[in-house]
């Protein structure tokens, strides 16, 4: 790996940590501001695509209010090409039911990032899916 690729991988893993930190704090607005570019799309499972920061913020806010917690991301692969990069990896999370039970989930994700004018990286396409069997 080149020095630039190592720096990019480090920046993307730092975004993982920010995502998890904001999710754990229940802060959808902070999560979206830190992680997503203005023109981003979220491609969640069993749901239509969600486009743009305001709609993505509302999506995550709904999940957080529904009991999403204990989010952890691990980017296991990063590839770069000029102003684009992608990262793929694993996630774990829990959903707290109204009765207080914590239901764990784990799965995989793929994120495409674009280098921003200030040199930072932000997600432009983000998709994830559970490893658990459907109902």
Low-confidence stretches: none
The largest pleated sheet is described as: 6 strands, mixed
Count of DSSP E strands? 6
Q: Which outline best applies?
A: globular
Number of domains: 1
Structural class: alpha+beta
Write down the CATH class: Alpha Beta
Strand order of the largest sheet: 2-1-6-5-4-3
Order of helices and strands: HHEEHEEEE
* Number of H- or I-type helical stretches: 3
Helical amount = 25-40%
End-to-end Cα distance, whole Å, is 42 Å
Second-tier CATH architecture: Roll
Which band does the percent of strand residues land in?
A: over 45%
Structure description:
The chain is of the alpha+beta class and 135 residues long. It has one domain (3-129): Nuclear Transport Factor 2, Chain: A (Roll). Helix content is 32%, strand content 45%. The protein contains three helices and six strands; from the N terminus they run ααββαββββ. It has a six-stranded mixed beta sheet. Helix 1 (3-24) runs antiparallel to helix 2 (28-35) and helix 2 (28-35) packs across helix 3. The longest helix is centred in the N-terminal third of the chain and has 22 residues, at 3-24. The protein is globular.
